[in-house]
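Predict both folds.
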Amino acid sequence: MGLAFTKIALVGRPEDERVIEPMQQLADHLAGSGVELYSASTGIDDKVTVVDEATLSDTADLIVAVGGDGTMLYAGALARKNDIPLLGVNRGRLGFLADVTPDEMTASLDQVLAGNYSRESRVLMRATLSSDGKTKTAFGINDVVLQRRETGRMVDFETWIGDHYVNTHSGDGMIVATPTGSTAYALSCGGPIVSPQLDALVLVPVAPHTLTDRPIVIPSHQTVEVVIVERDDIKAEITVDGILLGEIKPGDRLSIGPSEGRVTLIHPPGYDYFDILRSKLYWGRDSRNRGTPGDRVN
């Protein structure tokens, strides 16, 4: 029986000591399994063929990202081009996306190569910023964020869903998140956790001026329009998965809608989304038994 994947791309930051060691271990292990290995990074292992980043998803049939969720977002942008499945080994702090631990990675990869895995399709967003007759477009796995910049003033902006006016908001901004991004910045601003199985988007105001300005969950096929309201000294910007898309000014328009492509995550046997939530968010644990900062454990 052949391998489920025969060309694997390794993505990570080899200059990080926490990342380079598991990448080298993976390279040794996978090369011994008869897999062809590729990376856009140098210095991992002589068994890894270095290719241009732009052609990485053209070369591989699986991407393995080693790092935190930021590395997974970066790898997801590479995978989106040809819908290459993505598996994450967590070397970050939380690891909602990168769910395989370094201790389990070789055994998990063996299971995946043997065909024992599950696929999970995640929603992608397309964000288009129209300003001064020009447009900029980016694709988001986590979120699109409107945020005030270089000023203590609030941002006033209108939101529309489809052809329907929703609200005029005042505050620090707005997060439009996918279910994947619902456990990221949106969660810290009071947004709900949305199951990744749902095709939905969540709109979460950031520090709204009124307490009645609450998060809204909508179908992912609908388009969200955001327009900055004219006001003196308004400075705001748009980021997509933490990367700056551009400044947004009064009269500019931000359009956020569904992307034709999606991101496919690979999970080894035993993956449980709710187990991830319990582990990362400390559900069911008594905080009184977790100690206090500065406590010394002998």
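Second protein follows, with its predicted structure tokens after the sequence.
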Amino acid sequence: MENINQKVAEYLLQIKAIKLSPSNPFTWASGWKSPIYCDNRKTLSYPEVRNYIRDSFVAVIKKEFPDVDVIAGVATGAIAQGVLIAQELNKPFVYVRSEAKKHGMENLVEGVVEKGQTVLVIEDLISTGGSSLKAVEALRDAGCKVVGMVAIFTYEFPTAINNFAHFACRLVTLSDYSSLITTAVAAGYVSESEVETLKEWRIDPGNWKK
């Protein structure tokens, strides 16, 4: 996994799916100030990166979650990734909406999944884990056995770690914040003097720069 961690981090930095700016922070939709911005949807625009991430997902799933009936993507960021993975594994695919449709069948889970089936959830990015774990809850409410979640990247927030523990949901990621910082310093994306700022933000992102 160490090689995958580093390679995915390198790719995300190279294609600017992840941008680091400790001296001029971004503002997230939540209002948080952040020295990092991540948009993993960009990986889909680069075939080499897209294929590497798909193949890494598949390798991890075969090793860590070999007995899975259905692959589920979290809308909207993980739908495309989930389809690519399900196709490669020859598994059924469903996706979970952020909220139920307000018309028609009012579905929350789109696709065909049966009670008792084992489901692995695919996500593109883990921040606090809140929206991701809503998908887990929806699948469990539908009678599925969720064996875990695999994501491209996690910020490794303590809140997320606690949330996944509370939901008893195992999380495996292709790369993480620690690997990203190590890779960014080695490749010259940030200086050694900026590393402390990046580490401080991850510990308490909601109050950083207040």
